[in-house]
Amino acid sequence: MTERLISAVLPAQRVIDDGDMLLWRALPQRDRISLGPFVFIDHYRHRSRRGIGDSPHPHAGIEVISYLLEGEVEHRDSEGFRDRLDAGDAQWIRAGRGMLHAEQPAGGRHGLQLWTSLPPEHKLIEPAYASFRRDSIPEFELGDARVRVIAGNIGGHAGPMTTTMPTLLAHVRLASGGRTVLPVPEEELGLVVLDGQLDLGDGKTLGAGALAVLAPGDSVELRATAQGPADVALLGGPPAQGQIFFGGPFVMDTPERLLQAKRDFASGKMGRLDGVPF
User: What is the pLDDT of residues 234-246, one digit of tens each?
Assistant: First the structure.
């Protein structure tokens, strides 16, 4: 197997750091706006019931993937879906032509919120929703790691989440000083450290607050430092299709579609939630 080495480390933006919430945004960045189909990577942790999406807000042109490491949160949206996620659960929202949602945490929370860009032919597809309980997400041991596969496939272990474009999302938990080698042939691949530090050799380490982009290959070696265990998210897949235009919570493939999404939200075509839009 050809080992995938780190080709670039992109510092994440510390969007919020106020003593209650710490929010790192690894994508989009000026030098890179996508990694596989992913166009938005937020890693957050907060202590109170204050959330990052607790007020009703829209999305369009994307799939929203949430993975909760700690805490619990209530979900509701303009399509009528209501749900509750607990630690270890995952959520998939296909925003498509546009919808509103809100998420209210019950208390402190730690997790990932990710966006993947829908291909041009699916930008205006009907919205859809699904959630996946902790016990439905396959978990296996390899080397000194426990691996959970939320979407995609690692070594024959397939995640339950089905996305429009092939997508890999996995959570790897390494023991202190532990090592594992994972088969991951995805065309584009990166990793985000969620807790602890990875040992990169030659005295170098990688902790939270950065996106590591991996070179082509078909396997990746992960090693935790001797200072403690490490949690890592692996993310990747084929490159995003079409052009990418951001407009707040909307991601479209043309300026005209982006403008139309804003008009659809303002006119109420994306639905209503607690009176929004007014």
Answer: 999 999 999 999 9
Residue with tokens 């969007």: 15
Dig out the tokens for 223 from the structure: 């090693």
Chain centre distance of CA 219: 21
Torsions phi, psi for 164 (to 5 deg) = -65, -45
Closest Cα to residue 92, out of 32, 56, 136, 50? 136
- The CA radius of gyration of the chain, in Å to the nearest whole number, is 18
Structure tokens at 176: 């202190």
Secondary structure of 66-82 in HEC code, one letter for each residue: EEEEECEEEEEECCCCE
Rounded Cα gap, residues 1 and 4, in angstroms: 9
Bridge pairing between strands 109-117 and 38-46: antiparallel
**Would you list the DSSP string of 43-105?**
EEEESSS--SS-S-EEEBSEEEEEEEEESEEEEEETTS-EEEEETT-EEEEE-TT-EEEEEEE
Query: pTM for this one?
Result: 0.96
Helix (H) or strand (E) holding 220: strand 219-223
